[in-house]
Amino acid sequence: MVGLLSLYLFKFRIKKNSSNKINSKYISTVMNSKKNPVKTSKLNTRYFSNMLSSRFCLILSVAAFTFTISLFSNSTVEAKNARINATPSSQYSDDPIILANREDIQNNPFPGSHLPRETLELIAQGMSLAERGKFNSADEVFEKAAQISPNSAEVFAIRATAARMSKNYQKADQYFARAAELDPYDEEIAYNWGMSKLLGKDSDGAIRLFKKTLEINPKNIMAYNSLGKAYGRNKEFAKEEASYRKALELNPQLGVTNFNLGIVLSLQTKFDQAVPFFKKAIKIDKEFDKPFVQRFLQQYSAVKSIQESPKLVSPEEKKLAELGKEIDKKSEGSDHKMEGSSAKIFKEYTDISGKILINGQPIGPNAIVYLETKDKLKAPKQKTQSITISQNNLQFSPPNSAVQVGSTLTFVNNDREVHNIYSKSLKNQFNLGAMASGASRSILVQDAGPIVLRCNMHKDMVGTVFVAPNGYFTTTNENSEYLIQKVKSKEYIMQVWHPRLYPREIDKYTKLVSLNGKDEVIDFKMDSDSKPGEIHDLVDATDYDLIVDNIEKLLYEAVGDWKKGKKYLPRRKVLKAATFHFQGEGLKGALAKSFSEKRSVKLEKAIDDIRKKISGYSKEKVTEDSLKTDTKRVVAQLRNNVLELKARIKPGGK
To answer: Which helix (H) or strand (E) holds 272?
Structure first.
């Protein structure tokens, strides 16, 4: 066991040539845990900026300090970053996910460990303690390791990381300093020390260390990206911009750096320059296709069209400037603290009222007016709801409803005829099946947006449910007027929804409002190409067969990687199958609503059982054949469920 640990720890040890130039491939990690979340400084790519947990954070640093991959040749080897897409759900976070770019690794000989066996055993013990959050005990063990190997930079670097995990940044500095003293030309030590400084809110110290990292290796893209973050903390936006541009010179295809550059340019009101970087980030990775970015791009487009017209409307330009400020500290990849408005807050709460007009005419009742917080947090005292929608006289009653995310909808058939209620709405697709007189079914709505209800048996039956993102919403009255009371004074995105409006029209009239306690009257005067009575649903064009195809491909690839002895790549692929495809692309939700929550959870568990087996958590004997059998069974179950789901949804009219 110790021999394997030794080989694993030092197989990827960085190798230096006589001129102290370091050729390395970088290791990237994505980790999550339910316990003790430690928030990073959002330093690296979107993958570096995920929440790190005390359970996995130590292994991250062991990877960063000790598992660095080196490829050796007579010519210079370009450093490059491994790109990681995993976004594991918390329910799968019982093991570390360390993902390294290890191509060609078996073809490169590496020297064995130079540390004694006892030191390695103590490192392993300290890591285990730190994983469980026992930082004091871990430090005592690392102290013993340091006594045996007092001149090992690795020991002090790992010990420093354990101190950083416990938020003891003073100790972390002490140990990092010792590690750097023992190995002053190790770029990973310098880089991770800089990250520790940033976590400890010492941005100046972080800048110094990231610069040192770049002195050692001028092509360290991660260091340029992190240096930009540190400059951003100091509000040195010009220097931040320059750092991101340098990173993009080395690799123009870094999605997060394009995204960060778009942010810092927008903060400097360089909107014309910011737009192409946002668009490129989205093209590289859809993760950056965030709502506030889309609103920014839409408002920018609107301003440009106005500027190109004979008359320039300055209020629209002002809206764009305000929307640019929406990119705040909560935004992925940004450390900036955007206030968005310098207006002084006089009262804690604000009342908002107004009137909704379409083509100059009152919209009538049942339009939804809602506010969305920029940071996506729940509104104060937010509560979910349980409502009943009856089927009476071949109509939905009430015909129009509004609830919050997380609410329960119960459908009760009070007619003598059979009803089959379904929805094709985006992210809320389901079919409840045939419901006889007196029957009832309940579903949980977890995605914000409109749901248009129909019945397969009765084509004229139409109802709507709007799922609001939080508690700040209301409906208009007969006079098309609305009132939202006691809204916490801050900035919000404000929208109006009505089934008559096209999605593009809803987006066009999005407002950014800054509340300071002074009651506001905000009217919406909207133009629409629609006619009264029309319904424009957000239809979900989900290809469920394709989702299962992607899950099947990933599971079989994971089995193949497991057979080759790879440790972390297989479980990452199974996680992606479960979280990104089954859950994230809507198949889990569609099955839960159409059939039962129990059925969707059972399928999800079947996928996760494969992950546990390839991760070594199963007590059963695991072989390639047994894993392939499990995979075949899961895929068959998924395909049968999709067939049943499609058979339900297909008859659903328009």
So the answer is: helix 271-284
What residue type is assigned to position 587 of the chain?
L
Higher pLDDT residue, 481 or 38?
481
Distance, CA of 257 to CA of 578 (rounded, Å): 28
Q: What mean pLDDT comes out for the span 384-394?
A: 90
What DSSP state is assigned to residue 582?
I
DSSP codes of every residue in 411-445? EEE-SSS-EEEEEEETTEEEEEEEE-TT-EEEEEE
Helix or strand holding residue 350 (H, E): strand 349-358
d(CA 27, CA 40) in angstroms, rounded, equals 16
Mean pLDDT, rounded, of the chain:
74
In angstroms, what CA-CA distances link 21 with 9, 183, 214, 285? Answer: 22, 13, 11, 32
| Bond from prior residue into 398 cis (ω within 30 degrees of 0) | yes
- The single-letter code of the amino acid at 412 is V
pLDDT of residue 319: 54
Structure tokens that stand for 418 in this block: 């059979």
Residue 621 and residue 619: Cα distance in Å, rounded? 7
Q: At 136, which amino acid appears? A: N
Q: Report the pLDDT value the prediction gives residue 629, as an integer from 0 to 100.
A: 93
Distance of CA 21 to the CA centre of its chain: 36
Q: Does residue 341 surpass a pLDDT of 90?
A: no
- Give, in degrees to the nearest 5, the angle at Cα 308 between 305 and 314: 75
Burial class (CB within 10 angstroms; exposed 0-12, middle 13-18, buried 19+) of 106: exposed
- Residue 140: CB partners within 8 Å, gap ≥ 6? none
* Alpha-carbon gap, residue 361 to 527, rounded angstroms: 10
Q: Which two tokens stand for residue 86?
A: 């995993």
Check whether 52 has a pLDDT greater than 60: no
pTM for this predicted structure? 0.43
Whether the Cβ atoms of residue 150 and residue 114 lie closer than 8 Å to each other = no
Tally the C-alpha atoms within 13 A of residue 438's C-alpha that lie toward its C-beta.
Answer: 0
287-291 contact pairs (CB < 8 A, 24+): 287/46, 287/255, 287/332, 288/46, 288/255, 288/256, 288/258, 288/259, 288/332, 288/333, 290/331, 290/332, 291/493
**279-288, long-range: CB within 8 Å, 24+ apart, which pairs?**
280/255, 281/255, 281/256, 284/253, 284/254, 284/255, 284/258, 285/46, 285/85, 285/255, 285/256, 287/46, 287/255, 287/332, 288/46, 288/255, 288/256, 288/258, 288/259, 288/332, 288/333
Residues in the chain: 654
Residue 17: how many CB atoms within 10 A of its CB? 9
